[in-house]
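Tokens as discussed.
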């Protein structure tokens, strides 16, 4: 019985480390997808126990990643689906870079996300309808990209959303007029 208690104790102790490693793996996947001429990501070492000591990463008291702050960092490359594994992420700040490609559907899995700032990049494709699952989202700034298609109606169901900027893209269709969109001034 004592061996069982010891094994359970060790398991419970290592569980947060395993979670942190999966977050580190997700962030390192992002790192590998980016070109970083100014070496702002040089501290992103996948051999560390967790990414909480990496520059531009903020963690909570449980060593879970809550912020990725890489705005205006001269990065190029693309976003990766692994970002969806950062379950406690509240702020994803990648504005004013040269990020290309699409917004992964998995970004919609970031249930704690408060701010998604991908503006002033070169992101293409559609705005994923899965972003409508981000029920804590307050700021959605996707302006000045190359996004196409419609504004997903699913975004209108996010009651917490206060700021939506999708200007200067190649979007088409009607703008939702309910939820966070009902107070957006439209030119006549």
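Sequence:
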């Amino acid at each position: 019985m004592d061996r069982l208690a010891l094994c359970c104790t060790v398991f419970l102790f290592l569980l947060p480390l395993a979670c942190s490693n999966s977050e580190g793996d997700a962030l390192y996947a992002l790192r590998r997808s980016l070109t970083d001429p100014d070496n702002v990501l040089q501290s992103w070492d996948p051999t560390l126990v967790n990414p909480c000591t990496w520059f531009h990463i903020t963690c909570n008291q449980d060593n879970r990643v809550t912020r990725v702050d890489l705005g205006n960092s001269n990065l190029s490359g693309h976003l990766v689906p692994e970002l969806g594994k950062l379950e406690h992420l509240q702020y994803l700040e990648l504005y004013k870079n040269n990020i290309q490609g699409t917004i992964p559907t998995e970004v919609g899995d970031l249930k704690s996300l408060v701010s998604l700032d991908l503006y002033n990049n070169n992101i293409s494709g559609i705005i994923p309808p899965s972003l409508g699952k981000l029920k804590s989202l307050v700021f959605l700034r996707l302006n000045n990209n190359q996004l196409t298609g419609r504004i997903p109606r699913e975004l209108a169901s996010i009651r917490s959303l206060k700021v939506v900027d999708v200007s200067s893209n190649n979007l088409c269709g009607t703008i939702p007029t309910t939820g966070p969109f009902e107070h957006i001034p439209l030119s006549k």
